[in-house]
Specification:
Helix content is 9%, strand content 42%. By secondary structure, it is mainly beta. It starts with a strand and ends in a 9-residue tail after the last helix.
Length: 69
């Protein structure tokens, strides 16, 4: 899979300030994100969150099935 980088921004949360990076799959037209905590440019372990297709449920901690509709 080849993704095209779109943009990065900060994502302040009650757990800390993360970086959010947007990507696009140019073949399928789908968007993807990576949420990171730490410096991506150094050779050290980095915390990364991989999300399912239900981004609102993952990020907003929904417990309802409404996000699946």
């Amino acid at each position: 899979m080849v993704l095209r980088f779109i943009e990065s921004s900060t994502l302040p949360t009650k757990w800390g300030t993360f970086d959010i990076h947007g990507f696009e799959d140019p073949f399928k037209g789908k968007e993807h994100i990576a949420i990171t905590l730490g410096d991506c440019s150094i050779d050290a372990p980095l915390a990364v969150r991989i999300h399912s297709e239900c981004l609102t449920g993952d990020c907003l901690l929904y417990t309802s099935d409404a996000a699946d509709e």
